[in-house]
Specification:
The structure is a homotetramer. Chain A is mainly β. Chain A is built from three helices and eleven strands. Chains C and D meet through strand 1, strand 2, helix 2, strand 6 and strand 7 of C and strand 1, strand 2, helix 2, strand 6 and strand 7 of D.
Chain lengths: 295, 295, 295, 295
């Protein structure tokens, strides 16, 4: 059965037709039609207004609650995840496993009115490294639970995939959760395609004097766009993110346990803990503006 | 290809067989085998240990963050959702739309170590009513985003279905979210089977002197189990929940907007707002022990 | 133990009937309001029209594609999942693991117009058993990927929980899948709360002369509704499903592998394969009308 | 505008080839470490073995079941979605809405053993167009329900986002579904972020003599990679997909209805139907090898 087409009604001719205007004495030149520029937008999908774009352009503001575990990997394994321009730096094998529950918005802040759009969970691994003596962090694996931050990660070179990420939320009342800014236990889990790949427990006991080191250095990514055309070289650009308005809440720290299950994800097992250090819980915010090439 | 069966190895006979014991002079009576009682558990699935049960038995401890909007429905519509034992009470048409992000645990608190199990979002509608002059609240519709609280709802008579529930989270730092216990804006959305059915915006401006009324009265449910056998009468039991350890955080209140879209859900449109009142944001905790029949 | 339904008592006629009021002199008679009966429906949520009910009443028509693996469990383990009224029958330890992709509809067939509502995947385990010499099958565990069949399972006593269920689909063209009704390989996987719990591979090579035995006998469930009120006995009713219009397509059979991972689900490990038999692929349809008590 | 790839420079051959080293008099020489090349892979995440890559390299084999509706959009609206290199061709405003359930695999076919990885649903809109007189199809919007085909879409310039896509499956037996290759009704629905955006009903009545035109022409995409670095021009490359091994099953056709709801997606409303034509149901397979630039 055919849907009846919704056509614009045919306009009736006006009762008194407008008089045909006389040509001006000196005709203005006929403007050439504007060059058609086609649909646009910061990302796909391109559209006439540009507003269909899956991504808004940066800057993006982020605020979140973080559960973080310091740990150590085999330094050779860490090195095998670094591009040649980076080296391990003074603390080879230093690593972190980080859970975060984020809220984000564009410059307009419009997304904050749609909590189903502006919230996501994230889990990532960081490896300590250096670029020409400058301390940085490399993210070999990351998962989020919303497609927008996933694609946004690929624009910057951050290898975000989709997973199911959960972490303990502090509660203001009752016994079903720890308190914010107090001693207590925070857990995190990650599952990817029906396999649990990471699990941590952090028992914070006291306020720390400074934020955990690996959360204070710039991230260095290999911005990658796979080859598709015959003979094309893939994009592989070493970049660092440009971040402002970094804020930490008070940081609570304590002991931690961490398990990574590498069976389901090739090469993830290389980054399993050889030792587990302190755990941390804190609020964090930043504004992300774009990247800069490391050259 | 057949998986090789994993059988227990056949035990070798002992080198020196144990001597055959002589029969006692007065034999003990041969014990009859215990009556087999079958698999058990608080709920399905029943299993030998009882630990496969989808639900743990009550009590359950809950703590959560709530975004609530007072509103009014047509009193006749409200009445049409009440069983005959209940009436509208002194404020006919008083209603509330409530978003909450919960954490819960059983008496053992074991679930708190698995954030993917102990967290869920909930949206529900409450209608003011009375049972024999006692103020109560009736929940005609509720949605959660996890199957365990859904089934647990059905055990108590609460009509929980599955949906996608989101609400603004307060943040400690940055610009991507309001602060806890302060003026700010909180939004909530609900989608069911790919249709958005509810949306609210609450702008809290000051601390309230008391919690919102409809969140302080007992819930009254019709505990229902559908008929399945020929001639069976369905269970339809009027019950009230037994709750202890209620805690409210400070409550912040202000103005609110609310939209319910009843197109996708039969009869939901009857409960659309005819007026929208104040909005509230607060933390809440309770322990749920079971129910009692109203007779 | 059967839960006694709590019905509204039939009101006795008053001892002294109220006097018949005299008719007014002139009168449109004021109609007396109908006795308010309250909201209704086959299941929760109850509503004025009854159409908010999550479940439609039976009968329900099902049609689906099945991938099934015959296997054997330890007979003592199988027995430990049977209520005392059932015994293992002539083939102790016979079991099956079954994947299915279903479409269903009520008598009206309305659901078929909403593929997001009428489709679901299912995985279940069956154990051979007997009730008073009558061959039946017991389902100790089942998972589906949609809440409606989950709740519908609980009404009948089938222990359905939510999981992620996938199985190979046959394709009419191309190389990315086997053909329907032909030799080929079919795989199935199940994940629950981020853990893979079952995986099978079936390589069918020839048409079978009859359907696999465990898919042809009635299911026997313990219809269970947990206790909620003080002193209440939970409903625990031994029932068999009433099914008509059973149809099998041609059945293709061959070899199979099967793995159950019991780590994530208490007592599931008891039902791990001690041997794996044949695999089967077929289409199946039935109409489910309700249940009958086994007494 | 093409983004200049940042490649490792091709090393020039040494001017004077190194002499073949004489064997040392004593000692196993200390081998110099191999030049470290860093982690690799076809896409992010890069890893030592390259096997962490979210995407396998092409070719990819696809097979699926398609429900397709021919319809017409306002030609000016269609034109506004075309880049300047394309024009509307001889049938301005011809469009199609296409639902498909796919299975895919890489050259190794490994993915077919993991049905949770190799299956996805897709919905897309196609617009008739021409490139230098060559008939092609432009895809302004597409949604899939799995992240791997989503990212793979972005590599080729296809604007795939995540959504919930459902379509009627034919069944071999019973009354809960139509038969494959026969008259019957097939429905499709799409929801994005909790909003239903498309719905179609196709009632096929007879076998068609040829496949629907818009499913037989090459797709032309604008391969896009957003700008991230200061002053960077985004990649925006007009490409056509290179496809082989196209197979159609028999095609059944009939009448159709179609509704697009553009409220939730900017600019989608521009492509709402002004008329709805025939509907089609068929199986389809192809192998996708990469792209070629249109110049």
């Amino acid at each position: 059965m055919t849907q009846s087409p919704t056509l614009a009604p045919i306009p009736s001719p006006p009762a008194h037709p407008a008089p045909i205007p006389s040509p001006p004495a000196h005709p203005a030149p006929i403007p050439s039609p504007p060059a058609r520029t086609g649909p646009g937008g910061y990302s796909l999908p391109l559209s006439p207004s540009g507003r269909s774009s899956m991504l808004t352009p940066p800057p993006w503001h982020f605020a979140g609650e973080v559960v973080m575990v310091d740990y150590r990997v085999d330094p050779d394994a860490a090195a095998s995840f670094l591009p040649p321009e980076l080296d391990l730096g003074p603390d080879p094998g230093a690593a972190a496993a980080i859970w975060a529950q984020w809220q984000w918005c564009s410059e307009s802040a419009d997304e904050l009115g749609s909590p189903q759009r502006c919230q996501f969970g994230e889990f990532l691994i960081l490896l300590a490294c250096e670029y020409r003596g400058r301390p940085m962090a490399r993210c070999p694996f990351a998962w989020v639970d919303h497609p927008v931050p996933m694609v946004r990660g690929w624009v910057q070179g951050m290898p975000k995939q989709l997973g199911a990420i959960h972490q303990t939320r502090p509660m203001r009342v009752g016994s079903a959760g720890p308190r914010l800014g107090a001693a207590g236990r925070f857990d995190g889990t990650v599952a990817v395609e029906g396999r649990q790949i990471a699990q941590a427990s952090v028992v914070v006991t006291e306020e720390a004097v400074r934020p955990p080191a690996l959360h204070t250095v710039p991230l260095v990514h290999t911005r990658t766009f796979p080859a598709w055309l015959p003979g094309e070289e893939p994009l592989a650009q070493l970049v660092s993110s440009t971040v402002t308005d970094v804020e930490f809440s008070e940081v609570w720290s304590g002991s931690a346990s961490l398990r990574l299950d590498g069976d389901a994800i090739p090469d993830l097992g290389l980054l399993a803990p050889v030792a587990v250090g302190a755990g941390h819980v804190f609020g964090y915010a930043e504004t992300l503006h774009g990247g800069s090439a490391l050259t």
